[in-house]
Amino acid sequence: MKPINYDGRRFKTINNTDNGEVNEETTFYYFQKDDVVWAHYYGGGIVKGQLIASINELGCLEMSYHHINENNEMMTGMCTSKPELLEDGRLRLHEEWEWTCRDYSKGKSIIEEILLFD
Prior knowledge:
This protein is mainly β. The chain is built from no helices and 8 strands. The protein has a single domain, classed as Lipocalin (Beta Barrel), CATH 2.40.128.
Protein backbone atom coordinates (compact mmCIF):
# COMPACT_ATOMS: atom_id res chain seq x y z
CA MET A 1 0.00 0.00 0.00
CA LYS A 2 1.38 3.43 -0.89
CA PRO A 3 1.72 6.03 1.90
CA ILE A 4 -1.59 7.46 3.07
CA ASN A 5 -2.29 11.14 3.49
CA TYR A 6 -4.75 11.54 6.37
CA ASP A 7 -4.94 15.33 6.10
CA GLY A 8 -8.54 16.57 5.82
CA ARG A 9 -10.18 13.14 6.20
CA ARG A 10 -13.21 12.56 8.43
CA PHE A 11 -14.14 9.26 10.08
CA LYS A 12 -17.09 7.74 11.96
CA THR A 13 -17.05 4.74 14.28
CA ILE A 14 -18.71 1.68 12.78
CA ASN A 15 -17.83 -0.83 15.51
CA ASN A 16 -16.45 -0.70 19.07
CA THR A 17 -16.14 -3.07 22.01
CA ASP A 18 -18.43 -2.49 25.00
CA ASN A 19 -15.72 -0.88 27.14
CA GLY A 20 -15.11 1.85 24.54
CA GLU A 21 -16.70 5.29 24.63
CA VAL A 22 -16.86 6.36 20.98
CA ASN A 23 -19.81 5.26 18.87
CA GLU A 24 -21.47 5.89 15.49
CA GLU A 25 -22.27 9.48 16.56
CA THR A 26 -18.58 10.31 17.15
CA THR A 27 -16.83 12.17 14.30
CA PHE A 28 -13.05 12.30 13.92
CA TYR A 29 -11.31 15.09 11.94
CA TYR A 30 -7.77 14.11 10.86
CA PHE A 31 -4.76 16.27 9.92
CA GLN A 32 -1.21 15.40 8.87
CA LYS A 33 2.22 16.95 8.42
CA ASP A 34 4.97 14.58 7.28
CA ASP A 35 4.73 11.45 9.49
CA VAL A 36 2.78 13.17 12.27
CA VAL A 37 -1.01 12.76 12.35
CA TRP A 38 -3.44 14.39 14.76
CA ALA A 39 -7.19 14.62 15.11
CA HIS A 40 -9.95 16.07 17.16
CA TYR A 41 -13.19 14.23 17.79
CA TYR A 42 -16.53 14.73 19.48
CA GLY A 43 -20.11 13.46 19.57
CA GLY A 44 -21.81 10.36 20.89
CA GLY A 45 -20.94 11.03 24.51
CA ILE A 46 -17.57 12.67 23.81
CA VAL A 47 -17.54 16.39 24.61
CA LYS A 48 -14.04 16.99 23.22
CA GLY A 49 -11.22 14.65 22.30
CA GLN A 50 -7.79 14.79 20.72
CA LEU A 51 -5.25 12.29 19.47
CA ILE A 52 -1.70 12.47 18.19
CA ALA A 53 0.04 9.76 16.21
CA SER A 54 3.11 8.84 14.25
CA ILE A 55 3.13 6.54 11.24
CA ASN A 56 5.27 3.46 11.89
CA GLU A 57 7.34 1.46 9.40
CA LEU A 58 4.33 -0.76 8.57
CA GLY A 59 2.12 2.25 7.78
CA CYS A 60 0.08 1.93 10.98
CA LEU A 61 -0.73 4.82 13.28
CA GLU A 62 0.74 4.61 16.79
CA MET A 63 -1.24 7.07 18.87
CA SER A 64 -2.19 8.39 22.24
CA TYR A 65 -5.58 9.97 22.86
CA HIS A 66 -7.53 11.78 25.52
CA HIS A 67 -11.05 13.09 25.81
CA ILE A 68 -13.65 14.44 28.19
CA ASN A 69 -16.87 12.46 28.16
CA GLU A 70 -20.38 13.70 28.92
CA ASN A 71 -19.86 12.71 32.60
CA ASN A 72 -17.00 15.26 32.71
CA GLU A 73 -14.43 12.46 33.10
CA MET A 74 -10.97 12.77 31.53
CA MET A 75 -10.18 9.52 29.71
CA THR A 76 -6.77 8.60 28.25
CA GLY A 77 -5.43 5.77 26.16
CA MET A 78 -3.05 4.34 23.56
CA CYS A 79 -4.00 2.88 20.19
CA THR A 80 -2.58 1.23 17.07
CA SER A 81 -4.63 1.79 13.90
CA LYS A 82 -4.08 -0.38 10.83
CA PRO A 83 -5.38 1.20 7.60
CA GLU A 84 -7.39 -0.68 4.98
CA LEU A 85 -8.09 0.87 1.59
CA LEU A 86 -11.69 0.14 0.56
CA GLU A 87 -12.69 -0.54 -3.06
CA ASP A 88 -14.33 2.89 -3.32
CA GLY A 89 -11.09 4.63 -2.25
CA ARG A 90 -12.15 5.41 1.33
CA LEU A 91 -10.13 4.32 4.37
CA ARG A 92 -11.12 1.97 7.16
CA LEU A 93 -8.97 1.93 10.30
CA HIS A 94 -8.80 -1.24 12.41
CA GLU A 95 -7.92 -0.13 15.92
CA GLU A 96 -6.54 -1.97 18.93
CA TRP A 97 -6.58 0.28 21.95
CA GLU A 98 -6.02 0.31 25.70
CA TRP A 99 -7.16 2.71 28.38
CA THR A 100 -4.30 4.27 30.37
CA CYS A 101 -6.77 5.29 33.05
CA ARG A 102 -9.58 3.79 35.09
CA ASP A 103 -9.55 -0.01 34.52
CA TYR A 104 -6.74 -0.20 31.91
CA SER A 105 -8.88 -2.51 29.80
CA LYS A 106 -8.27 -3.20 26.10
CA GLY A 107 -10.61 -3.12 23.14
CA LYS A 108 -11.00 -3.03 19.38
CA SER A 109 -12.83 -0.60 17.16
CA ILE A 110 -13.25 0.19 13.49
CA ILE A 111 -13.63 3.68 12.11
CA GLU A 112 -14.47 4.38 8.47
CA GLU A 113 -13.92 7.44 6.32
CA ILE A 114 -16.94 9.53 5.48
CA LEU A 115 -16.97 11.73 2.43
CA LEU A 116 -17.85 15.42 2.54
CA PHE A 117 -21.17 14.81 0.79
CA ASP A 118 -22.23 12.04 3.25
